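Re-running triacylglycerol lipase to confirm reproducibility after the cluster update. Everything else is unchanged from the original entry.
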Amino acid sequence: MGKNRTSNQKCFAMTVTSLLICDCASCDILMVCCALLYDVVKFNFRKSLDLDEEGCFLQPGQAESLEECGFNASAKTILIIHGWSMSGMFEKWMHKLVAAVRRRETEANVLVVDWLNLSQQLYPTAVNHTRLVGHRIDEEQLVLGNVHLIGYSLGAHVAGYAGTFVKGRLGRITGLDPAGPMFEGVESHRRLSPDDAAFVDVLHTYTREALGVSIGIQQPIGDIDIYPNGGDVQPGCSLGDMLTTAAAGNLVDVMKCEHERAVHLFVDSLINKDHSSFAYQCSGPDRFKKGICLSCRKNRCNNMGYNAKTMRKRRNSKMYLKTRADTPFGGYHYQMKMHVFNRKKVDDANPSFSVRLIGSQQDSKDLAVDIPDGVGLNFTNTFLVFMEQDVGELLKIELSWEGHTESLSSMWNNVKRTFWSFSSPPKPQVLEVRRIRVKSGETQKKYTFCAEDSSHTEITPGKQLRFVKCRDGWELKPRKRYGSRGRTTLNL
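Result of re-run:
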C-alpha cells in the first residue's frame, strides 16, 4: 500500500487518513483486510458545530479529499476518539466536545475518529480492537507536534497505541477517564503511557472499585494525572441527584455520570477559559483533604483540562482539586490553619466547627470544617475549605462551634456524676482560638487573621468568634497566576 508512493502530497494524505489505523502488513497479523478496516474506521472532518450534519470523510490515499474537506496542513489537528459503545451511536457528550473544540480552536482541523463498528462489541473484544484502531503512521509523513489526540475511556488507550506505533512523537494526548478493566497494572506499551506523546495529561473521575474492578483506571499513566474530587465521588452524580434531574435514575446512571464527568470537565476548560480550574500536586487524596497541598512552587499546580501546561521532567505527577456539581466546575480552594487551645483541659471534646468567609464581593455560606482525624486540641489543625463562588478579597472569617459529639466515655462519666454526688461536676466545653492563617490556592496569597476582640478568644458550643486581618499580620505578594484569573505541632 505505502511502497509506491510518488508524491509528498499523496504521502501526507495517506498519513492523515491512516492515523490510528494499521498498514497492510500489520493487518495480515491481525487477520483484517485493510480495505475493510478503512470502511469501519472513519475520520470525519468537522467543519460545523452541529454533529448531526454529516461532515466530510477523509479518503485514504486521496490527496484531493484533503482539499475538498478544507484540511489545513499547517494548522493544529485535533482528533476526538470515543470509547466503548453499547448503542452503536455517538453519545451526547461527543456533540458538546466537538462544538467546544471548534469554538475554541477556530482554525484547527477537528476530526472525529469513528470506530463504532469495532467498539460496539463485547467489552473484551472492543479492548482487543483498540490496538488495531491505534496502529501506526510513518515519521516522515506528518508534523506530529501539531497533533492532539483526545480519547475517552477506551478511546484514551486507542490514542496510546497511536503514540506507541508512530515513528516520531505526537504533540499531546489527553486521556479522559481512561478505561480500567484489562488495562489496570499492565505494561506501559499495552495502555496509554507518558511515552506516547510529548505531553500526556489524564483526568480520572471514576476510580472507585466495584467487585474488584474500577471503570476508570486508578493508577497514574500520564505526565500529569488529575483526580478531581479524589477521582471517585463526583458532586452531582449521586443517586439522589439522578432522581432529581432525570425521569428515572439508577446505579448505571450514577456510574455513567461519574465516568463521563471527565469529558464535561474538559469541555468546561474549553468554554470557560477565563475561569481555569487549578489542580495541586499531592501524594494522595487524604493529604489533599487536609489542605496540605496548595503550593504552586516548582510546577506543583497546573490548569485542569485543555489549558494544562506542559510539565517536563515530571511523570505520573498526581494532582487533586475539588469541583462544583455543574458548569462552571471551577471553585476556590483555601488552606486554613488554626491552633486550638485546650487550656481548661476539657475532657473528650470533639468540636464540630464551621467557617464563614466574608469578602469584598460577597459572603460565603457556613462551610463545615472537615478534618478527617478530628479537631486536635493543643495542636495546629490544617484543613481545606472549598467555595463555589468568589468572595473577592478576604476581609473577615467567622468561626462557629456547631456543637460536639459526646463520646461513650463522656456519657459514662456523666452517668456516674448523676449517681455519685462526690464526683466532680463536668468541666465546661471551652476552647480557645487566637488566630487563623489562610492561603489561597488560586492566588497563592497568604494572610493571618486575629480575633476581632483580643480579649475574647474563647469559644463554646453554639457560639462564634470573628477574625480580622492582624495588624502585624503578613501578606505575601501573589505569585504569577497559572490561568486567567495534617496537623503539626506549634508552640505559641
